[in-house]
Structure formats: C-alpha cells, structure tokens
Amino acid sequence: MVTTGNEKGKFVISLDFELLWGVWDVTNIKKYGANLKGVKAVIPELLDIFARYDIKASFATVGTLFAKDKETLLAYIPTLKPAYKNSEFNVYLHEFNKIGNDETDDPYHFAYSLFELLKQSPHEMATHTFSHYFCLEAGQTEDAFDADIKAVIKIATANDITLQSMVFPRNQVNTNYLAVLWRNGLKVYRGNPKSWIYKPRMLSAEVPLIRLCRLLDTYLPISGNNSFAIKKMENEPVNIAASRFLKPYNKNLAWLEKLKLKRIMNEMSYAAKNNELYHLWWHPHNFGINLTENMGNLTVLLDHYVLLNNKYGFTNLTMKEAAGF
Questions:
Q1: 2-322 maps to which CATH number?
Q2: What SS3 string covers 172-221?
Q3: What value does the mean pLDDT of the chain take?
C-alpha cells in the first residue's frame, strides 16, 4: 500500500447523472417528474458555474444515457443480466418496457443533448454502471456485474469516450468487485465515508435509524470531518471516497440551510489545512427544482473553495486526476 504525498489538499466534485434510471424503483414520474425534467436546465447551469470558478467535475453517467434513441440503447443491453432475488429491483423486467423513442418524447430516460454538452466540456465522463446496477442485492453475481461493465464500456467507446472512474449505484460498494473494475480498465472508484452510518448496505438494511443519523450528520458533526489521504493498492482501483452528499434545498428545512453549508465548509477547511482530499457529490436531479436556491448554495461553497485555494493551495481535480491518472 502506498499513501500518496498530498502536498496540498484536493477538492473533488462528482455528480451521479442518471435521470429516471436511478430512481424508478423508489419513486415515479408523477411524484418526481419535475426534478427529472429540470435536469435539462440544471446541466447547462452547472457547466456555466463550473466554468466561472474553473472547476472540473466527474459526471458518473449511467450507460443508458449514452444512447441517442431506443434502437441504439437496446443494441447494447448485455446478454447476461442481474437476477435479483427481489424482482422489483430488475430494471430490465420493468423500466425497459416503458421507454420511449428518444429524449423528444421521453425526457425521463433519454438526454443525449445533455450528454453531448458534457462530452464537449472539460469534465470527466465517468460511469455509474450501464443499468444502475445494485452490487449488494441478493441474486446478482460477479459475472452479471462484469457483463454490465463491459456493456457500459462498449457504448462509451462507441461515443469516443474512455472510462476510468466508477461510482457504485446507491453507494453499494462491493469490494469483491474491484477486481472486475480493474480488469476492465476502470482505475478509480468512489468509496463511502468511514463512519458506520455510511457503510455499504442492501436497500432493505437502510432502516429509519440510519437515515436519521445521516440527516443529522448533514447539519451536525456526527461523523466528524470526512476527508482523507489517498491510498493506492497494487492492481486495484484507487478509492477517491465520498466526503459529503450535498443535500438539495428543501423549503421546509430552509432555516437549516446555513448550518448545512457551514458543516460542509468546515470539512473543506479541515481538508485544506491538513492536506487531505474532500469529495462532494450529488445528482443533477437533486437541483431539478428550486434551482435558484440550490445554485446559490453551490456558489457559497465554491466561493469558500476559492478562499481555501488562495490561502492553502486547495486544488480542484476530477476523480481520475486525484487518483493520479
């Protein structure tokens, strides 16, 4: 094991770009459609603010969003699919039967115009698996995961994109699958914060107590400062672990917004002063409503980044850059 010499602290931002593919099993268009359609405005806004602050991010995109239309998408579906014990998790049995032809008539499953914007930007295109694959659920296997990863690499390659970084859907980091990533050329992944409240779990294990602890940790230092030194293992992807999920603005909790931002800024400051890495993440659909408030919060955090950059040399990098690739 080698601990990299972080002369200065590092600041990483990753976004899980998934649309309905990432939430179809927990919500629906009637409840969450505004957030999903709002991504059409969110991505250009993010690209604009990142450009103004000279920020590069890693957009971990599900492979399904690499497809321009239904015909293209269906051509890349792997032969070996996950056989989840709970069939309600199986996107192939459910969501694939509902998709439209392209983003014109189905903006919940397709977003090729946004994909093209990202492809032309300076940001890293990373992967969120092909099908938003759940790596800890009963019934799925290493071989099925390997097939999913090969499918996303194939569709990325067809779009002239070389993938190097991976984000596990629902943060179900399965360390037994790191060898699969490495064999397929994925050299970086986003792990979870160290605290027990962020331990990778099956969806059924996400009990109310754990969710409450994570909610409290958004505002109070329950889990401490979630920054770290990068460690590299031979023949294994580098863990650029998550530090904090940027919880979206909620008008019912608006009175806590300053406390939320202070929590993140304190962690960023700790990382900058101690030459560690801080990794902020969220989904574009989190900003799909209340865009003004969410972008305002992001501006506050990026202003703080500029301060730390000037004072401590705190440097922004993509996931693969932070890992040294």
A1: 3.20.20.370
A2: CCCHHHHHHHHHCCCCEEECCCCCHHHCCCCHHHCCHHHHHHHHHHHHCC
A3: 96
Tokens of 135: 């790596």
Q: Is residue 56 pLDDT above 50, yes or no?
A: yes
Q: If you search the block for the tokens 């401490």, which residue do you land on? A: 224
93 contact partners, CB below 8 Å, separation of at least 6: 87
Helices 291-312 & 257-273 angle (0-180, nearest 10): 20
> What's the distance, CA 110 to chain centroid?
18
| Percent of the chain whose pLDDT exceeds 70 | 98
CB distance 302 to 49 below 8 Å: yes
Distance between CA atoms of residues 69 and 104, nearest Å: 10
To the question of pTM greater than 0.70 for the whole model, the response is: yes
List the domain boundaries for the chain.
Answer: 2-322
> Are residues 295 and 41 in contact, defined by beta-carbon separation less than 8 angstroms?
no
C-alpha closest to that of 126 among 169, 92, 71: 169
- With a CB cutoff of 8 Å and minimum separation 6, the contacts of 260 are 218, 219, 247, 297
